[in-house]
Write a structure and sequence with these properties.
Layout lengths: L1 H7 L19 H12 L4 E5 L5 E5 L2
Antiparallel strand pairs: 1-2
Length: 60
């Protein structure tokens, strides 16, 4: 989360993994997504598959 915060503040270079929402932007929504995943409270997660497609899965 700290590295993503530093990217948002433009202190670090962007990385592909920092865009947790897979929307092409690194912002506070990505931080919220990362935090929810860490806490185990996220209901959906988007991953990139082997064909480089964004796939959203519902977590139970």
């Amino acid at each position: 989360m700290t590295y993503t915060e530093l990217i948002i503040l433009e202190y670090r270079d962007q990385t592909e993994l920092a865009d947790a929402k897979h929307d092409g932007k690194i912002n506070m929504q990505d931080l919220m997504q990362i935090e929810l995943i860490i806490l185990g409270k996220e209901k959906e997660i988007t991953i990139m598959d082997s064909a480089d497609r964004a796939v959203t899965a519902r977590l139970v």
